[in-house]
Amino acid sequence: PAATASKTAAFTPNYEETKVPAYTLPELLRRNNGTVVENKEQWPARRAEILDVIASQQFGRMPTKQLPCRFTVVEEGEAFAGKARRQQLRVFFSDAPQPAMDLLVYSPKNASGPVPAFLGLNFHGNHTVAADPDIILAAGWYRNNADYGVSDNKANAASRGKATETWSAEYLVEQGFALATAYCGSIDPDVDDGFHNGVHPLFQAPGWTGRADDEWGTIGAWAWGLSRGLDAIEKLCPAIDAKRVAVIGHSRLGKTALWAGANDPRFAMIVSVQAGCGGGALARRRFGETIWRITTAFPHWFCQNYNRYQDAEATMPFDQHMLVALAAPRPLYISSAADDLWADPKGEFLALKNAEPAYALFGKNGLGRDVLPPLNTPIGDNIGYHLRPGKHAVTRYDWEAYVAFAKKHLG
Ligand code: GCU
User: Where is the 4-O-methyl-glucuronoyl methylesterase-like domain (predicted)?
Assistant: First the structure.
């Protein structure tokens, strides 16, 4: 079913708890055949059912074809007054020079061995991540943005370092972590172009005329690209312990981090920041952004089957607690911002709450709390959560919480 973008302007989000409809979530541990999973040995098969339903109904199926990707080191140096090593790796997705993704890696120079890392996609290019003049500008399509002085769809040097707090690279290095990040637009530009740009055409069979209803979209491609980033780390980055890489993302890229962690068990930890609708927030609450709104505004993010659930959340064979539970038994962290009601903080907390049974199969504790915690109070054992004051953004406070959680789980 096709989405109807013209209706987007008519949407009025609900921000009142009293207007949240009554709902029943699909049971996380109930198999498609009606029986219930009772122990951790039975989780992988149930997990495969959940992965399959979310692939076919929300993000689209990941391609099975292997591309002849090539990986090279394009630059190495130092940053942050000699505290960090910088590596810039390039992943070519085909034999051609484009599409290609540059992975910027900062790691602590004084480390005695391979360190744990955070890997995430950025919104506006690697050069925005730190005020480091040696970061290579992204080639190819670039999002226009007045704040970044870009109106010609090309990256420019004026926005170097604009997302410094968002990535807190120097802080991470000081804490003994590496940061690896790539620009999402190098995998797939964030525009609804009929899937003629980015990596999608590399997978399309000759004569392809349009997507099947369960064919992947842009979030699927971004998640796939994160796995190629992890491949690059495994192959070319001795500074990072590839078995201790947390995948992280904010907002649309937080939905992406959840989906990447779901599909690639090599990610040792998953962090999703204010991903909201289609990410960490329960769809059935219809609080803030809804499926109707997201699929009309951003139809290219998901597969077409997701449109079936526009204003029909009760008919969904899954909800977002099942997406986040695909992280289990790996450590999982979600954080929300109090002013970011569009992303439904309570809906994110409740998705985590309802993912706890998967962790319990492994004898692992979850949030340790049944209701939203007070502001600025990180909670949880193997499932972490915090709600901080303020708006839709990734702040230093957020990073401090992820680092504390990562120190506990990734050492
Ligand atoms: C929009 C969109 C959200 C998304 C956000 C972002 O607000 O509606 O679903 O998470 O953009 O990516 O910043």
Answer: 214-363
